[in-house]
Every structure is written in C-alpha cells, then in structure tokens.
Write a structure and sequence with these properties.
Elements (H helix, E strand, L loop, with lengths): L1 H36 L12 H10 L11 H17 L2 E11 L7 E10 L3 E8 L3 E6 L2 E6 L4 E6 L7 H4 L4 H13 E6 L6 E6 L7 E8 L5 E8 L4 E11 L15
Antiparallel strand pairs: 1-2, 1-11, 2-3, 3-4, 4-5, 5-6, 7-8, 8-9, 9-10, 10-11
Helix pairs in contact: 1-2
Length: 259
C-alpha cells in the first residue's frame, strides 16, 4: 500500500512537470509564429515575458509549497487600518465572542458592544456566560463584574500588560495601529484564500499574548480576531455593525457608582 502511494505521488509529480514543460515548449515554438502572423511582431523581437516566468516556476520547486507572504500587501493593510483609525474620532461595534479557558471544560460564549473614543476612552458591555462592564477614561480603568457585584479599579498607565484587561479589551483597540506596530512583529498569512494578519510580541516585550491574528473586511474594518495567550487560553471574536459616532462626553467612559 505504501509503495502504491509512493508511485501515485510520483506519477502525479511527473504529470505536473510534463504539463508545465508542454506549456513552455508550446510558448517557445508557436507563440513567436503567431505574433508574426498577426503582424504585431518585428524582426528580432524577443520572446514573450511569460517564458522567464514559466522557467522560474519550474526551477522553484517550492513555489506552491507554502503560503506567500508579501510585505507590500501587509503594509497596505496596516496603512489602511491606520488611515481609518486616524480619520475616525469615535466608533461603536457589536461583537460575538468565544473564550477558551484552561480551568473550564467547555468554551464560554458571550456577546457585547464596544464604544471607543480617541485617544484612550473605552466602554464595553459583555453579556452571556460572563457579565462585565469595562470603563476606560485614559487615566483609570474600572472592570465591573455584574455576576459577583465587584469592581476592580487600576491606573490606565501600564494596564495593557494586566491579564484581566488583556482578556476583555481587544488589543488593537487599546492603543491604535501605531502602538501596535511598536509592540508586535507583523506578518501576513495568505493561505486558504484568506488574508490574515498575524502579530507576535517583539523580543524583550513583556506581554500576556502569544499570538494575535485578525482579518480585515470592507472599509478597512476588522471582522475577525483570535487572541492566543501565553498560558494556552484563547479568545475568538467576530465584529459586526461598525458605526462612526459624533463626539462623546468623557463622562460616558467613567464609572460613577463608587462611594
């Protein structure tokens, strides 16, 4: 059975090689004649540029063996995101989220909404198997647990490294695209007909994240994100209903129930 599989794979490889070689041979022998017959060729005309391309594909045995990463396309995606971020003062978005936590036997499913105002104002409402409110006014962070009736308050400065905030607030929204570039190495995965931006913390950075992956849809808006943490937990989020908002008062992003 193993030998038959080997022969089948070898036969398939030979067939592909023969097919490519046939295309190359056809191009070399017949295309120049066709060009001359149509009157579009000239004496001493060079062969069509497709020939070097075909030769390159034949010589490069790994051309189709792994996803292609193009720095120019990655830069285009990130620049469009940054342009969208720079041109928007405030926005809201709804989301559906699945969380996998090591201590739980099954993932948690929640829904919620997020309102953001530059530079660092955030308000989130999370409902489902977990019920939380998050308030960020650029100076302080309040995390309200509605199930236990508890509120955690801490300083905003340095809060991006706190695990309790990292597991609630999508990291791209915490500081914008420019700050994201400073904290993460970026790459582009184009396998499966999809373009997925992949972020990995830069060397030397203290980060709760192991890897962040996200996809961008129309109008340069993030539609899907998966955050993987260093301890093996992960959070997968789908975003929908993006809306640009007018100016919002800072009071909207503060927790006012403190005694």
């Amino acid at each position: 059975l193993s030998l038959s599989r080997i022969y089948s794979i070898r036969s398939m490889g030979i067939a592909v090689a023969v097919g490519v070689f046939a295309c190359l041979l056809y191009t070399i022998l017949f295309v120049p004649s066709l060009v001359r017959l149509t009157g579009k060729g000239s004496k001493g005309a060079s062969l069509p540029p497709v020939i070097p391309l075909l030769v390159l594909l034949i010589l490069s045995g790994t051309a189709f063996s792994r996803p292609v990463t193009q720095d120019s396309r990655l830069e285009e995606i990130l620049e469009n995101l940054e342009r969208r971020y720079s041109s928007t003062e405030a926005f809201s978005v709804d989301f559906e989220q699945v969380k996998s936590i090591r201590q739980l036997t099954e993932p948690m499913e929640i829904t919620g909404s997020l309102v953001f105002r530059k530079p660092h104002f955030v308000r989130m409402e999370i409902r489902g198997e977990e019920n939380l409110n998050l308030y960020v006014d650029g100076e302080h962070v309040w995390l309200e647990d509605l199930d236990f009736g508890e509120v955690d308050r801490f300083e905003f400065s340095g809060s991006e490294s706190r695990p309790e905030l990292a597991r609630v607030l999508p990291p791209v929204f915490a500081g914008g695209i420019a700050e994201m570039r400073n904290l993460f190495e970026a790459g582009l995965d184009r396998s499966g007909g999809r373009e997925t931006v992949e972020l990995v913390p830069r060397s030397g950075q203290v980060s709760p994240y192991r890897r962040i992956r996200f996809e961008v849809g129309g109008f340069s808006r993030i539609t899907w994100m998966k955050v993987e943490f260093g301890n093996g937990d992960w959070v997968e989020t789908r975003f929908r209903g993006w809306k640009t908002l007018p100016g919002i008062s800072e009071h909207y992003f503060r927790y006012w129930k403190e005694e």
